[in-house]
Specification:
With about 525 residues, the protein is mainly alpha-helical. The protein is built from 17 helices and no strands. It is globular and about 70 Å long. It starts with 9 loop residues before the first helix and ends with a helix.
Length: about 525
């Protein structure tokens, strides 16, 4: 039996504009942090471990909290949770801006992660409920994904300007006015949605999901950075054991925190894997590109931001063009095409040297275009699988994949790239450096630049060149991993999703019950 779908009207599209604000903020926060890394490195003097924690603790905490927050939004109301998170994010942003030490900045970034975990599943699930027509929903998600690109374009420009004239902490204050606008406009323009029969909220499951994610990621991070040791391996094993216990608990609960039946749908699980690993490859590389533009090519933060705009523009093009193309072309082929284009751009990055600005800018633009196609369509598949009353939980799973992939990409690929950097810069370091300069140069490229500025010629040029060459070699290594991985992922996507037809119809969706939706999707893809 089918139901008549109410197409979204003016109020829903205006509400979508409000829902773009959190996506703008998340992207701005990430991109300006990458630009601020050289400046906060000089001021706070973090170790390599602290610097990686500063960049990825936000994503780690979000990844561990999203499932809890998504399910909480289904129960108390998505708009209510969104507005509460916006207020908390504003406060945490101010704390981060005025952090006096690296450890304080890590703590404030963790608090931002808790607040941020309320934002993304709330916005995505509200879109799921506001846009019931499949065609309209795909367009709405394409626009919503564009918010990340707009934020990644605005962030470097605004962040670059602030870093030119103010201290590094000023970039965190960009989020405050964005959240204030959301707090004012949200109650006026956004409807409230929640599960009318939510059941009991399982606090034990919420705690288990957080601990499992954090302990596994911590262990992987330590192994990637310092090698195999007892403590990180034990952390991974404990995290996996808690994760297994979490899954088994969900199977026994009448109202599970995570509905595992969604993973039986091939379209859901394959899209989630593609989404997660695409973000994994992109995040680790973007961190190196931001530092390459400033510390290798020698651009100012504002100039680096301007050269990042082409990538943001092509991402917007890809994310808004894909809803039109998917009406004529099977989603599997569009998603795979985006992955292949991104793989080509990664292959281009394997050929960069210390003066390859044009290659990096072109590769960044092609990568963003490809991911614009991929992320829009995979996000749409993930969220459209679930019934409206479980949209928050499904959105949380999608965003968990995004944040987990992003944080893990920074941790693993970042650690691998920095391992290459430390090894090569140590071998090529000129003689006569003080022990403090040696340690600083080994920790980060920013530290090598600062140390080189304190030396006279020819030692200054020798250290600077050694650091830049070593950093480029690290970028080349992670780009090689990305190119191979994305090419394989494109093949898997075609094999698993090739039976899904183009979006040629806007027929009414069937009854919004998970027992109806899952078998229908399985039958559609020939499972």
């Amino acid at each position: 039996m089918t139901n008549t779908i109410t197409r979204a009207g003016r109020r829903e599209w205006i509400g979508l504009a409000v829902l773009l604000l959190p996506t703008l903020l998340i992207a701005m926060d990430l991109t300006v942090l990458h630009l601020a890394v050289p400046h906060l490195s000089a001021d706070l003097k973090p170790t390599t471990s602290q610097l990686l924690w500063i960049t990825d603790i936000y994503g780690f905490v979000i990844a561990g909290s999203l499932i809890t927050m998504g399910t909480l939004g289904d129960r108390i109301g998505r708009r209510k949770l969104l507005l509460a998170g916006a207020a908390a994010f504003s406060v945490a942003s101010v704390v981060a801006a005025f952090s006096p030490s690296a450890n304080m900045l890590i703590l404030s970034r963790a608090l931002l992660g808790v607040a941020g975990a309320t934002l993304m599943p709330s916005t995505m699930s509200l879109i799921r409920n506001m846009f019931l027509d499949p065609k309209q929903r795909t367009v709405a998600i394409g626009i919503w994904v564009s918010g990340f690109s707009a934020g990644s374009a605005i962030g470097p420009l605004m962040g670059g300007f602030l870093l030119e004239y103010f201290w590094w902490g000023s970039v965190f204050l960009l989020g405050v006015p964005v959240m204030v606008i959301l707090l004012i406009a949200g109650p006026l323009l956004l409807p409230e949605y929640k599960d009318p029969h939510p059941g009991r909220f399982d606090l034990l499951s919420a705690g288990m999901s957080l601990v499992a994610v954090l302990t596994v990621i911590y262990g992987i991070k330590q192994v990637a950075q310092y090698g195999v040791d007892v403590l990180p391996i034990l952390s991974i094993v404990v995290g996996l054991a808690i994760g297994v216990a979490f899954v088994r608990r969900q199977q026994t609960l009448e109202d599970p925190l995570l509905d595992l039946r969604l993973f039986k749908v091939r379209a859901f699980s394959t899209s989630l894997i593609t989404y997660t690993f695409g973000i994994f490859a992109m995040s680790g590389t973007f961190l190196f590109i931001a530092q390459y533009l400033q510390l290798v090519v020698g651009l100012s933060p504002l100039e680096a931001g301007l050269w990042s705009v082409p990538g943001a523009a092509t991402f917007i093009i890809g994310s808004n063009l894909s809803p039109r193309l998917v009406r004529r072309i099977r989603p599997a082929y569009l998603i795979a095409s985006g992955l292949v284009l991104a793989a080509i751009s990664f292959a281009m990055l394997t050929q960069v040297d210390v003066s390859s600005l044009a290659v990096v800018v072109i590769a960044n633009a092609l990568m963003s275009l490809g991911f614009g196609f991929t992320f829009t369509l995979t996000a749409d598949m993930v969220v459209s699988t679930a019934p409206p009353e479980r949209a928050g939980a499904a959105s949380a799973i999608s965003e968990t994949g995004l944040e987990f992939g992003g944080a893990l990409g920074i941790a693993v690929l970042g650690s691998l790239g920095m391992a290459v950097y430390r090894s090569q810069v140590t071998a090529a370091m000129p003689a006569g450096l003080s022990p403090e300069m040696v340690v600083s140069a080994q920790e980060t490229l920013g530290g090598a630049v600062v140390a080189a500025g304190q030396l006279s010629e020819p030692a200054s040029s020798a250290l600077l060149q050694a650091g830049q060459v070593a950093f480029v070699h690290g970028l080349q290594l992670i780009a090689t991993f990305g190119a191979v991985g994305l090419a394989l992922l494109a093949l898997v996507t075609v094999l698993m999703l090739r039976h899904i037809e183009p979006h040629t119809s806007s027929e009414a969706e069937e009854a919004h019950d998970i027992h109806t939706v899952v078998p229908r999707v399985q039958a559609e893809i020939g499972d």
